[in-house]
Amino acid sequence: MTIKSTIHVSLFIFISRITGYIRDIIVAYFIGTGKENDAFIAAFKLTNLFRTIFAEGAFNSVFTPIFSEIKNNKGNRSAKVFAIQVQSYLIIALILFSILVIFNMSDIIKYTTPGLNTESICLATKIAIITFPYLSLVSLAALYGSILNCYGKFFPYISTSCLMNIISIIGILYLNNKKIDPVFALSYSILISGFIELLWMIFWIYKENIHIISFQLKKNFYINKFFKRIIPAILTSGINQVNIWIDMVLVSFVPCGMSYIYYADRLVQLPLALIGTAISITFLPKISKYSSKNGISSESFFNNKNTSKYKNNENINLKTKQNNKKLNILFNNCINYSLFLAIPSSIGLIFFSKDLLYLLFAYGAFDNKSVMQSSLALNYMSIGLPAFIIIKIINNFYYGKGDVKIPTIFSLIAVVMNGLIGWILLNILSYVGVILASVISSYTIIFLSLFLLKNKYNIIIYHKIKKEIVKYIISSILSLLPILFYNKLVYNQYITFFLEFSNYNRFIVIIKIIIVAFSYFIVLFLFKGNIIKKIVEYIINNKIIVNILSKSK
Question: Which segment of the chain is annotated as a signal peptide (predicted)?
Fold first, then answer.
């Protein structure tokens, strides 16, 4: 994994999330957290549920390792043929599935959100029929994005979500002026954005001279391998969607509960995408590359029945051991870099939960009650942020090795735990009990996964990385001291008068966040954190500050 690639991906994701927050501010202003927004969330959630199967989830996790293996061992031409064949099967599957779902949309909405009343279910059904074709468009765009990722071209697909946000913003503002209901304006805008995203990806595919816009239904070794892996991967994704569906069912019985969780989730998604998604995007092709060197797949080397074939070949065994060592280092680097940002993000989101929601969404229909209830959801969700990120990395490790069974088993365990604990805690803690159940099950899965990684693949978290994690926790807590000191001695005594001016209050929140971020880096530097030392060394060695100052003259 190259740090440069991860930084670039994170930057693109950050820009996309900023446009996403602008979209959410506008949606919060026009729609708020009422029944209309619950109906939209229920409808669009359905599209996103299946998106994890046909797009970035199961499909991508199986397609990318095989495509990367063919590209590394057979060449670009064979890889393109494989992509054309997979694309053809995907198009057929999407058409048939979309027709089936759209014609049964009303019943599906009823079963996925039984807590909604008849009026909300009717509205959600109308919205879902408009937005569901977006699934087919974005799934094809995701296929082209996976191909470009294997060639080190990360920008095109990451920017598609930015396109969707911009089009949604323009659409809701324009159509609202035309007296169209804001929730339907948003729905039509999302559908239009799907067409534009697909055209954008086709443009980049041809720009990179990857001509795969064709149709070819043929079976061969790699297609059979793809279908062999996609079934358990879909099962895993399906189990995960059952997990989300259980959450939706439970939360739907709490008025406005889905809306509160939605806005909390939007804040958690920023670090989750910047850290977890960015590292996973650059991690998966790398792990596939190491696993497919010399034609040795994870299935052949780590399966006891097949390892005897390679005992007499010392060169292959040596190369495999070297690759496994590289994988161990790669895995530890991913854990280290992700927690370097995930831990302070988690603690910061808890500390600034009300401030952030007020800063970003407290406009129009998003009132004080919405802020308070959403902040409660955000507090519990933020506790699980490091776990959500690590699970992404661990699952990509398994998929990169071609091991799709383990994530399936763990997903099944998570569903059972989440359902039972969520049902119990819902009656005690209301909608936040459902969030807490997800957090508990996520951390449980991490410990089980790490145990299995050690025993099956000899992949462990190094002792030095564990020491770094402790530094991140302590530094994150200590970085809050300046703000606590400020609040205690200055805030209440001197500037209470100014807080009635909302713009001034928002400015103070931004300053506080900047102070905490700088404090974290300073404290971590004093604790001799390895990553912060590397950053400082990079700045000094490349004379970045000197160059900036010289350019400003």
Answer: none
Hey, CA dihedral for 189, 195, 198, 203, is it positive or negative? negative
The CA distance from 296 to 490, in Å, is: 64
Residue 13 neighbours by CB under 8 Å, 6+ apart: 158, 273, 274, 277, 278
Angle of CA points 95, 138, 202, to nearest 5°: 100
Alpha-carbon gap, residue 190 to 193, rounded angstroms: 5
- Record the tokens describing residue 38, joined without a space: 């619950």
In a domain, 72, yes or no: yes
Show which of 461, 488, 518 is a domain's final residue.
461
Cα–Cα distance measured from residue 285 to residue 459, given in angstroms and rounded to the nearest whole number: 18
pTM: 0.71
- Cα separation, 454 vs 321, in Å, equals 15
pLDDT, tens only, 487-539 = 776 655 444 444 444 555 677 888 888 999 999 999 999 998 888 887 777 66
- Both 442 and 486 in one domain: the answer is no
Range of the domain at 499: 476-553
Which of the four pLDDT bands, split at 50, 70 and 90, describes residue 43?
A: confident
Backbone φ and ψ of 122, nearest 5°:
-60, -45
Written as six digits, the tokens of 286 are 């790398």
- Residue 254, domain member (yes or no): yes
